[in-house]
Specification:
The chain is an all-beta fold. Helix content is about 0%, strand content about 35%. It has a three-stranded antiparallel beta sheet, with no helix packed on it. The chain is globular and about 35 Å long.
Length: about 60
């Protein structure tokens, strides 16, 4: 895997499969991959594998 940076736009989130998120709604199981409500892209450290087309990133949090 190759180390690098992801540029995450505002309000980039992950939700479990089957959870529908509407604009402006914060779901209970939502994980924010970038800081909330920023106007500029947020960097996230991570890795990519060009062979298997997988990406892994570390998101901010407690």
């Amino acid at each position: 895997m190759e180390k690098g940076d992801f540029s995450l736009p505002n309000n980039t989130v992950w939700t479990p499969a089957g959870v529908k998120v509407k604009f402006g709604v914060i779901a209970e199981d939502m994980i924010w991959l970038a800081k909330r409500w920023n106007l500029l892209p947020q960097p996230a450290k991570g890795y990519v594998c060009r062979k298997c087309k997988m990406a892994v990133l570390k998101y901010p949090g407690k």
